[in-house]
Amino acid sequence: MKTKLIIIGLAAAIRVQADTNFFEILTCGADTYTNATISQVTPAYVTVTYGGGVAQVPMSDLPENVQQQYHYNSNAAAQFRLEQKEKSQQLRAAEAARQATAARRTADESAKAAQFARSPAGLDAEVKQMKQAGMVELTASLIENFPEKVRYKNGWMDAVFENFDESAGRSSEIDLGFDVEDSLGKSYRHCVVCKTLYGQNLPFYQGGNDSGRPNPLVNEISNLKHGDKVRFYGFVCNRGPLSDDYTELFFYISRVKIIETAAEKKAREQAGENP
After folding, report:
1. Single pTM value for the model
2. CA–CA distance, 96 with 46 (Å, rounded to integer)
3. Co-location of 259 and 125 in the same domain
4. What pLDDT, on the 0 to 100 scale, is given for residue 82?
5. CA 129, CA 150: separation in Å to the nearest integer?
């Protein structure tokens, strides 16, 4: 009689379990979940919320009676997984296309911004901003004839690159020197790029000594060709930073912007276009 009561009680428990989404103990393959609730059902998977968190369980791993409760069908499960895989592939393709479109848009915007920056309107707008920031437009005559107005001043110079000049800087080991023709058509022979960052102890380079790391601007300047029109940005300083001698002021370059290369100018002129 006792055995019969136990069997009857177990059968009742199974019927109760079949009528609910809650399971005190739910064994699915090699995993066992306690106080588990099946909260979402698909033809291939169920979502199990339990004491340790949330798990996605294949329907095929559920106990047979629970499979029957949720009408598990292996063919339907396979079809569902196939459809989900196709949807996932479509979503990845759509996301890749979206990212590619965004990258093209960003590249187009960057190209337009760069083109505007080199245009007369963009250059004029930048000049206005630089003047408001207290920067000085530099020319050969201003540096040579009025050194007291420009010494230790930040400024810019619109010029045409002429050639490299080893005598322009302190030495060829320390500086890359070159000559330019300024916006007024006068040659200026004291444009300098320091070959190492900060190591030259010049006051306009922030950070002081920096163990002589190579200055990446050297490569950029080295690629300039005779006739390239460039906007140079930098600082006016005498050759010996600790000296008060005004006779040798140099324009130390910290940044460059190509306005028009010699090749672009030639192509424009051949096409009969205005600058």
Report:
1. 0.65
2. 30
3. yes
4. 95
5. 18
